[in-house]
Design goal:
By secondary structure, the protein is α+β, with helices and mostly antiparallel strands. It is built from ten helices and ten strands.
Length: 299
């Protein structure tokens, strides 16, 4: 098994443990006859959240995937949320794209900056540089190892008031933020995101409605939706426990590019479809972990 395979399997193993919706969705898809098993589901992309502080952030985390043959692509900026991001194309078609975002910590209020740096300040060197990237197990361990001390609930709440992204990241660290089911290659009628979302809702899956259930790029070729992040029972520094937003599941429909619209459906391949990401779509997908969404799941 390659180092990359080990890393991806480790990420998905822990992700499935923390996000019960994954098993619910897969079971519903199998029961409906959409796929024969989980292995038939195409993973469009996975995403990470990071902090833009010394020794961490995109510049650190991307080293792992660049080493494995990924290619850095477009940069995105989310002004209101104070977030930057890059996406990375995979070295092989069957592998997921990678999306890494980073909080512009220096643009937070002095109080929020001091809270973030009180935790991240203990990281005095890039942790990725200390790992043999050809050792998949070592990289997997890094991605699931706390890089700073457990936050207090008071600090988490203060960050939550200003930046829900900051609060999520200070607690969840490098845990996989989401994985994404490609729907366009599913059998009819489920290859349409609208039809697939209707199926999910019939199956009892709560979808985020930030910016509408389906987020559509201006060219109409990239459609995305997501579940509401599931709450996890989080233990804080004082030993008390509180439910907070964990991770979620995303869904993407990449439509055929206009220049390939003449091709028969059986001839449509990966390269014939809309690639990349869209700032406006991603901006609202971020909100899948926000309290405006998770509150909808409360009884």
């Amino acid at each position: 098994m390659s180092a990359l395979s080990t890393v991806l399997e480790g990420l998905m193993l822990r992700y499935r443990e923390r996000v019960p919706d994954v098993a619910r969705i897969v079971s519903a898809m199998v029961a409906e006859g959409i796929v024969p098993d989980a292995g038939a589901i195409e993973n469009d992309h996975i995403a990470f959240r990071t902090l833009g502080v010394p020794h961490l952030g995109i510049a650190s985390l991307e080293k792992i995937f660049l080493r494995y043959g990924y290619t850095r692509r477009d940069r995105f900026a989310f002004a209101a949320k104070k977030i930057d991001a890059h996406w990375y194309s995979p070295p092989a078609r069957e592998l997921p794209r990678i999306f890494i975002s980073e909080l512009r910590v220096g643009e937070l209020s002095p109080l929020a900056q001091s809270i973030v740096r009180s935790y991240s300040g203990g990281v005095d060197r890039d942790p990725v540089d200390a790992v043999d990237l050809d050792d998949g197990a070592a990289v997997d361990a890094l991605l699931h190892r706390p890089l700073w001390r457990l936050p207090t609930y008071a600090d988490y709440r203060r960050l939550l008031e200003e930046s829900e992204y900051a609060a999520w990241t200070i607690y969840n660290r490098y845990y996989l933020n989401h994985f994404t089911i490609s729907v366009h290659n599913l059998p009819a009628p489920y290859g349409s995101l609208a039809a697939f979302d209707a199926f999910l809702e019939r199956s009892g899956i709560l979808l985020s409605d930030a910016g509408g259930t389906i987020k559509t790029s201006p060219d109409g070729l990239l459609l995305q939706s997501s579940t509401v992040a599931q709450l996890v029972d989080a233990e804080f520094a004082e030993g008390d426990r509180h439910p907070i937003a964990g991770s979620y599941v995303e869904f993407a429909e990449r439509r055929v590019l206009p220049q390939f619209a003449h091709l028969p459906a059986a001839e449509i391949r990966h390269e014939h479809r809309r690639d990349g990401f869209e700032t406006a779509n991603a901006d609202r997908i971020f909100e899948s972990t926000y309290t405006t969404q998770t509150a909808r799941a409360s009884p």
